[in-house]
Amino acid sequence: MITNPSYKLSFYKLLLLATLIFVTQVSSRAANVVITDLKCEYLTNPIGMDSPNPRLMWVMDDNRQGAKQTAYQLSVSTDSVELTKGIANNWQTVKIMSDVNRVNYNGKALLPYTKYYWRVQVWDKDGKTVTSPVATFETGLMGMVNWKGGWISDGHNANTKPAPYFRHAFEISKKIKSARAYIAVAGLYELYVNGEKIGNHHLDPMYTRFDRRTLYVTYDVTHQLQTGKNAVGVLLGNGWYNHQSTAVWYFDKSPWRNRPAFCMDLRVTYTDGTTETISSNRNWKTHTGPITFNSIYTAEHYDARLELPGWNTASFIDTAWKDAFDRSAPSNNIVAQSLQPIRAIEKIPAQSIKKLDDKTYLFDLGRNISGVSSITVKGEAGTVIRLKHAEKLGKNGFADQSNIDIHYRPTDDQDPFQTDIFILSGKGEETFMPRFNYKGFQYVEVSSDKPIELKKESLSGYFMHSDVEAVGKINSSSNTLNKIWQATNTSYLSNFFGYPTDCPQREKNGWTGDAHIASETGLYNFDGITIYEKWMADHRDEQQPNGVLPSIIPSNGWGYEWGNGPDWTSTVAIIPWNLYLFYGDSKTLGDNYDAIKKYVNHIDDLYPTGLTTWGLGDWVPVKSVTPVEFTSTAYYFADVTIMAKAAKLFNRLEDQKKYEALALKIKTAFNAKYLNTATGVYDKGYQTEQSVPLFWGMVPDGLKHKVASILADRVKEANNHLDVGILGTKAILSALSDNGFADVAYSIASQETFPSWGWWIARGATTLYENWNIDADDALSLNHIMFGEIGAWYYKGIGGIKPDPQSPGFKNVLLTPNFVNKLDHFESEHTGPYGKIVSAWKRKGSAVEYLVVIPANSTGTIYFPAGKTITANGKAVNAVNGLKVGAGSYVYEVK
User: Fold this and answer.
1) Separation in Å, CA 404 to CA 408, 439, 441
2) Cα Rg for the chain, rounded, in angstroms?
3) CA nearest 103: which of 115, 113, 94?
4) Domain boundary at 307, 339, 371, which?
5) Could you tell me the pTM of the whole model?
6) Are 360 and 414 in contact (CB under 8 A)?
7) Domain ends where: 758, 780, 802?
8) C-alpha 93: how far from its chain's center?
9) Helix/strand/coil (H/E/C) assignment for every residue in 432-450
10) What is the spatial distance between Cα 883 and Cα 800, in angstroms, rounded to a whole number?
11) pLDDT digits (tens, 9 = 90+) for 679-726
12) How far apart (Å, rounded) are the C-alpha atoms in residues 857 and 62?
């Protein structure tokens, strides 16, 4: 991630790269062409896959000008040796004359528990072949019928606080070839084999509507097992399944709530070709241990005096443990968890420590994160240590949770908010880090009932989130812009935990509005498709037969009655459409087709005029309040428009005709009520009212410039500051930059006084906030993503990198750079399905030097700002109607 490197180094490295590519192209046909990034279902060499027709994809790395794939041949086999000889026993296509780089498997039916090897041969632009390395994918159970284990729990009720531990000892007499553990859990878990924790995931499995869909995870445990005695250990946490904390959303009353349970199959394949499955059943042993309480919402309590040394090893004596209890499965739909897991990504040492009194220390990480803290301490047995996590400090210098605990409704004082409780065993130096919880915080106040000695190195933070790969980079001559970009990414990741959330502390809820507003920011910066595909399945789980969705997803039933109008629950359409644009993959759009259809049909039934008042409106505005009907109708129009486009894509012609007509009806009714065609003013002319119709395509073509001019005037009247809520924030920057007012958009984006993103940064923010006014009494989480559209606008509005709806997935890259006057340079990069795209520029006297890199097997269309003279290598370039370029690197001078 670029932070704030020297501009000259950054830009000229890009320019040098372009020069070297050109020299290579001229001096040699050396086709250093390689096939990289082989993935199955967007994962690298995954195991435990359930899809019968998984998507196989690759990237052609070829720096030559005009590089492209002209044909391919896919081969899939269970025999890796034969595959290297060009023989595939499962599927081998003929040579297919096509430039596609993602293909659905279409060979022999895939078998469960099977490892498949695959590779692709590609023909380049000269007809020469390039063969990829061999990649793999491995199937899991591929169906409920293949489970052998039973669901077990410890027999306690949902209100029992100590976490249950389970163990099972067994012997293996044969030589092991391979072994896989398949584990499905209602709740959270950690898995151990012979004392070793398996995997580096946290908070598995991901949160779903447990009574409708349950996830299982697969592990390779070949090297943890041994011939002879073995033991498996499973530790269960509550998560969202058994929510014991009380808050305004009533997750403690969830219809699925129960004591955590699990089902596990440990399948061992021996060298003689036979298999054996060790499965969960009532013969497993169970006990409670040192985790005396755990809550995904509040914290974790740990009494080290209750530790069970060796509990997950074969030599442990478990005579004091009782037999497990059989339980029914939480749902009838147990499916593979095929997405990037949550991990502790970054260890953050404390930046400072301050002793507040004899028993209290304050640690400052120097930045706001989502995750946990880890403390190492030595003290007397029975010493109670409390680790209170907060985003800010009170006037007295102690941790202040008043901005994040307002939704918590504790019934007693036994479950303090974001406060871990650690009781020492007294056995020397001890370390504690919670297993089944995460928090949002910068400060940790450590207090104890007996004096302890701590130093700065005693505590660290761990930044946790779904481990999605970074695919975007931004750098500019504005340090404020660079810091806003970093803060936006931190807030985005802080709210990515197997589903997108609003904040990592006071709610952790999957608020739909926050998520669709931030989805482009996420997709420009991170490869998050697997998380979004899982979350769209959550949508389908939650949708009522009439099409209605809740405002938070997953939900226990809360949110169907409030906050779930089209301005929020447009996620059902907007996110699948964005995935299609960014990846060129229509699967999620197809999976959600009926859900979108039911949703817009329901709104049509309720509001036959085309105008809808259902929604929350422009949430947390600066001062001007736009009518709910205005914004909700705009989002209704957006959903219906996506529905019509999806119908066209899938050749559903009757649907296409119907929803194009409905979209026109909505647009006509909206403009008839709100647009003054003579002046170009929508309603009262507020910033949100001028920008939302522009962003969502509701303005008549001949009036776009007039409407944008009024918007620019309104911004200038506000001294180049925002006067919008979150829906206006989503629209305003692009509404300006896409319609000739990029400098006005930049004046907003670069502001450093209230209200602005830069004002937060100037006041020390390392994340985005929930309210423009950071002195507000409420609505002030300090790690929210709902104002995060600016992170996408950098790419769209300054760098100008955009997907082409007519050739999605950046197969054709639309480039609409804006050389804003107050920037000396700007560099943007995005790695899409075909490789790295670069759009970078710097001022050079009265001209601008513009560098473009288009990856192999794709093209670009460059639209320069109007009124500019374009030259390349001293020769004039005609770019009036867009300059079409093939793969390669290009440098232009713009005057």
Assistant:
1) 9, 11, 10
2) 28
3) 94
4) 339
5) 0.96
6) no
7) 802
8) 34
9) ECCCCCCEEEEEEEEEECC
10) 14
11) 999 999 999 999 999 999 999 999 999 999 999 999 999 999 999 999
12) 9
